[in-house]
Amino acid sequence: MSKILIRGAKVLGGAPQDVLIDGETIAEVGSGLSAEGATVVEAGGKILLPGLVDLHTHLREPGREDSETVLTGTKAAAVGGFTAVHAMANTFPVADTAGVVEQVWRLGKESGYCDVQPVGAVTVGLEGKKLAELGAMHDSAAGVKVFSDDGKCVDDAVIMRRALEYVKAFDGVVAQHAQEPRLTEGAQMNEGVVSSELGLGGWPAVAEESIIARDVLLAAHVGSRVHICHLSTAGSVEIVRWAKSKGWNVTAEVTPHHLLLTDELVRTYNPVYKVNPPLRTEADVMALREALADGTIDCVATDHAPHPHEDKDCEWAAAAMGMVGLETALSVVQQTMVDSGLLDWAGVADRMSFRPAAIGRLEGHGRPVSAGEPANLTLVDPAYRGAVDPSGFASRSRNTPYEGRELPGRVTHTWLRGRATVVDGNLA
Amino acid sequence: MKRHLISAADLTRDDAVLILDTAEEMARVADRPIKKLPTLRGRTVVNLFFEDSTRTRISFEAAAKRLSADVINFSAKGSSVSKGESLKDTALTLEAMGADAVVIRHHASGAPYRLATSGWIDGAVVNAGDGTHEHPTQALLDAFTMRRRLVGADAGIGRDLDGRRITIVGDVLHSRVARSNVHLLHTLGAEVTLVAPPTLVPIGVEHWPCQVAYHLDEVLPKSDAVMMLRVQRERMNAAFFPTEREYSRRYGLDGDRMARMPGHAIVMHPGPMNRGMEITAQVADSDRCTAVEQVANGVSTRMAVLYLLLGGAVFDSKATSATSPAPARTEENK
Predict the structure, then answer these.
(1) Residue ranges of chain A that CATH labels 2.30.40.10
(2) Of A48, A257, A259, A396, which shows the fewest CB atoms inside 10 Å?
(3) A270 at interface of B, judged by CB pairs closer than 8 A
(4) How many percent of chain A have pLDDT more than 90?
(5) What three-state secondary structure class fits A175?
(6) Which residue of B has its CA nearest to A263?
(7) Which residues of chain A make contact with B330, given a CB cutoff of 8 A?
(8) Which residue of B has its CA nearest to A204?
């Protein structure tokens, strides 16, 4: 069995300690551990976190291998410090059967860079009309527990109610892409001062908030848990805060880009800033940061959405929605939450590993950094500063809104069950 | 440095007055037996139209031809664009053909801005209407018409529209003409009031340099010019207003309403008019309606724009500086 000694790492930002990995497991955490027979990684005061878990990743395979594959997407995840990602169901074909989720699950196993937990579609073909075989997907080798029509909203209240109820049988959760479809017909960006000036179709905050309000009430009514994807407005925060104050089983995620960027960027008409839900206002950004800090929002999820160059190298209306995010997520969270003093590194571990794993009922991830636990670990150098250079991305796509922007922090090492997937910032 | 006309908001007061003054000179050409200047001989102007607009296209075509430019009309319909060719490839094609100026009409807001800032072409870009964003040459020809009528053709030279009260009525939400006019008229010192049912007023309009009113009759006596916007009948089906007749009753301009305007006030319409909808035939055919005059002024104004752009004047300082995106306000490390 191979041994690795991580020497002098600030575990979750605490005092420097040594962590000994033996095989797939953390053998010991303490000071002055023996390096005998072990490969030594000098952490030198870097931050050691549990491997990050993403609840919301688009790996695009099967169907859009020109933008990403399970292999390239999991490489990008490893570079970003992730040891598990949830692969969204809006592939071609849609992951709405046991066959497709097992295919994605198997591709994840073969990649070896990161665990891939497939998400199953709630409805057949993401069409919102007929429930997909949720039980079959759960019972499959993929063991699906998170169901989502992400990209589309389950807007029919009855379908949503039934889905919430049905997945209780196997402790599943429905992750809702909250977007009232009629209010967002032709929507191109956040509806507000900027959209009116630019003449771009508006995506009003109320289209998100009205669905969240309905769904927390539905979840309460049927006693189910519901998860809200990529929450993006100050009003949504208020609704989730209220639902939680009632003791209802509601969880929510926020993307890194909604923690940093605003709709002012759309004035460039550069489609790299086109994303769904859209970039909102500064007031929304501040409310989201505060909500992530106080726990109203449970976790950060990337909504990593790769697109080929030609789908962004065009006029705004013709461009695809979405941004890649796996390789920059932790840096954005460090800048917006840690360096701003809103969250400490233990908080980052909670919001990017413990809680997303708990929401997804994912075993072996989001565990404490202590003896006997699986060695899923991420070592971060928070002192690093560097401009984002998409040409070096492991992802097959380059549609990042951060090109050239200086962001803090860098993942230097990632271990998946004791095997290094990233060493000194490079894929192992 | 590249020179473009993308947005009326990019024009300073002096830029705008220069264009209007130049347009007056161009208008004199139209009165000559031979309506042609040799100024742009050997230069190529491409009319790149992704959206049908015969009126705007022939106006630019006439303007370019009166300046002796070679004109190429590129209509997206029936071309490779309708077979899925991208804006980028179309632009690269035009660049390879040596276009000195590209006049672009596009259904997507921001397409001219992308064309001007993406590095796909070197020529000047003139926005001939993009989606629901802007139509700056329409605003310029409207301002030209207002200055002629309200200040005077000769008396107006060197002057703006200081203190003139302009009312714009109709579908502001979907109107690029209204957006460009609000920017330009404000720059020229006019006081603008938008009148529309609340469903057709954009969110955030309180940040625009204008007033908003919901009742036409209250505004008419205080207007020096009333601009009626075309209202698409399809809007009715999207519940922006209940029926055509109700819209016409509340926001249409008829003879009785026109009588409430001051004696000197004019009625404007960018065309094409929906007679019986936003404007009655009585108003449209009256001496106070400048719709036909606007068409003639459109050629003069577009001549002035092409002349100044291709002749080397620079009036898009904002557009060129905006090519490097401003950092997000929320960024922590300044």
Answers:
(1) 3-47+373-427
(2) A396
(3) yes
(4) 99
(5) strand
(6) B328
(7) 260-262, 282, 285-286, 336
(8) B203
Are the beta carbons of B217 and B260 closer than 8 angstroms?
yes
Residue B67's pLDDT is what?
95
Q: What is the greatest pairwise CA distance in chain B?
A: 65
Q: Where are the alpha helices (DSSP H) in chain B?
A: 13-30, 54-66, 87-96, 111-117, 136-150, 176-187, 216-219, 244-251, 255-258, 281-284, 291-311, 317-321
Q: How far apart are CA A293 and CA A298, in angstroms?
A: 9
Give the CA distances from residue B258 to residues A5, B221, B247, B267, B292, in Å, rounded to whole numbers and listed in that order: 87, 9, 17, 8, 18
Task: State how far the Cα of A70 lies from the Cα of B85, in Å rounded to an integer.
Answer: 30
Q: Which CATH architecture describes the domain A3-47+373-427?
A: Roll (2.30)
Q: Are A59 and A68 in contact (CB under 8 A)?
A: yes
- Tokens representing B295 are 């068409």
CATH 3.20.20.140 boundaries in chain A? 51-359
Which chain B residues touch A267 with a CB distance below 8 Å? 322, 325-326
Pairwise CA distance, residues B63 & B71, whole Å: 10
Angstroms from A402 CA to nearest CA on chain B: 10
Contacts of B83 (CB under 8 A, 6+ apart): none
- 3-state secondary structure at position A21: strand
At residue B253, φ and ψ (nearest 5 deg) are -105, 115
Domains of chain B and any CATH numbers = 8-135+294-321 (3.40.50.1370), 137-293 (3.40.50.1370)
With CA atoms as reference, report the closest residue to B170 among B273, B288, B284, B255: B273
Q: Does B108 touch chain A (CB under 8 A)?
A: yes
What is the tens place of the pLDDT at every residue in A299-321? 999 999 999 999 999 999 999 99
Residue type, B42: G
Report the alpha-carbon distance of residue A167 to residue A178 in Å, rounded. Answer: 19
Residue bearing tokens 């050997």: B42
ipTM of the complex: 0.88
The answer to whether the Cα torsion of A238, A240, A245, A251 is positive or negative is: negative
Q: Give CA–CA dist A254/A153, Å, rounded.
A: 17
Condensed to tens digits (0 to 9), the pLDDT of residues A150-207 reads 999 999 999 999 999 999 999 999 999 999 999 999 999 999 999 999 999 999 999 9
Provide, for chain B, the percentages of residues in helix, strand and coil under a 3-state DSSP scheme, each rounded to the nearest 5: 45, 15, 40
Architecture of the domain made up of A51-359: Alpha-Beta Barrel (3.20)
Is A198 close to B331, i.e. CB distance below 8 A? no
DSSP string covering B285-305: TSTTB-HHHHHHHHHHHHHHH
**CB–CB contacts below 8 A, A to B:** 108
Q: CA-to-CA distance for A270 and A281, rounded, in angstroms?
A: 17
Supply the DSSP string of A394-425, one letter for each residue.
Answer: SSS----TTBT-EEEEEEEEEEETTEEEEETT
Structure tokens of B43? 């230069």
Q: Which of A96, A150, A303, A350 is catalytic?
A: A303
In tens, the pLDDT along A1-58 reads: 589 999 999 999 999 999 999 999 999 999 999 999 999 999 998 999 999 999 999 9
